[in-house]
Amino acid sequence: MTDPRVLRTLRRTAEHTAERVDAATPVDRDRAVDALRAFAILGVVLGHWLVTALVADGASLRAASPLAEMPWLAPVSWAFQTLAVFFLVGGHVATRGYESARTRGVSYRRWLSARLTRLFRPVSAVLTLWTVIAGLLLLTGAEFVTVHTLVKLALSPLWFLLVFAALTAATPLLTRLHPLWPLVVVLHVDLLRFGLGAPAWLGWINLATGWLVPYTLGAAWTRGELDRRRAGWMLLTGGTAATAALVAWAGYPASMVGVPGAEVSNLNPPTLAAVTFGLAQCGLALLLRERLRRTMRRPVVWAAVALVNLSAMTIFLWHQTALMATTATGLLAGRLPGLHTLPDGLDWVAARLMWLPVFTLALAGCWAAFRSCEHGPGRRGRVVRAHRPSGRARVSGARHV
């Protein structure tokens, strides 16, 4: 058993560190923004860990999903498909940052370069490592289907970064765009695809316009158009009602993430149901702002949120690698329940929940090894811009993308 004195010492150290982080944070920082970003990132991570299975099939690994074997688990995807909240926060932060840069006389090119550098700096490490791993696996005789499955899972987060980077670059053009316009485009694309038999490739237009909806909502938040709680309630109730109607009567899938073998995915590319669901999530996020601001006054809670924001891209880019590293290591002990077995029952769900702490430890190892790639040389833990509930941002606060 652990010595109680050691536990007390660890607790006091953690509390002291949290108090230092809290004291170093400007009083005018909008901590709810950081809390929402952390929630969105961790939601995606947990969602992938819960619905992604690598089934050992002889000498190869293939991807599977409990949502394909147990469709009634679709509500799990409602809780962990949180990308709309990330785009909401991204649009809010980018719009505010761009307006602040213009006020300070910073050029668009310099502003964009700084943002994209922070966004893509850690990507090179992921690409390099997986290029080496894929090459070694092929050279040692691994089946191509296994290598393809692993590389696809490891690099799948990059599509999100490309879309986010494109919207960030277009921020000056989007600061006044009403979210209704991209929503109308998504509606018409789906009408053409599902109602009039248009080619399936047309749906990829929604890859940009679908995520443009929450991004422009973030810009509207910056303009002060979503400050009233009425706006949040309208988005939450309207988005929920529209999503329920689309799933119940228009034939859209209930799952808000891709399911292997499914004829239609709500996410690849985004459908109208995914966008209306995102509107509901954004409405809930806006309604929770004040409660989050109060909660973030607790030093320990705020320190945890600040840590996630400091390493947001590292966590996002490496969480699938952590899952696969655990899976590959576990193969040394044979086919383990919840790790290499077919996700076709509640026993698999129970076993997978028990693996989550192991995935977390593996991700912590990736974080320790690659976090410097996110901050760059000499910038680890550097403090930069703060969020204010209104007005201009100023230098200070916890670093984030």
Primary descriptors:
single chain; 401 residues; mainly alpha; two-stranded antiparallel sheet; 18 helices; 2 strands; disordered C terminus
What is this entry, summarized?
The chain has helices at residues 4-24, 31-51, 66-69, 75-80, 83-103, 108-120, 123-139, 144-155, 157-169, 171-174, 180-195, 206-222, 229-249, 272-287, 289-295, 299-310, 312-330, 346-375, and strands at 53-57, 60-64. The chain has 401 residues and is an all-alpha fold.
What would you say this structure looks like, in words?
The chain has 18 helices and two strands. The chain is mainly alpha-helical and 401 residues long. The chain has one domain (63-375). It has a two-stranded antiparallel sheet. Helix 2 (31-51) runs parallel beside helix 17 (312-330). The protein starts with a helix and ends in a 26-residue tail after the last helix. The model is unreliable at 380-386 and 390-401 (pLDDT under 50).
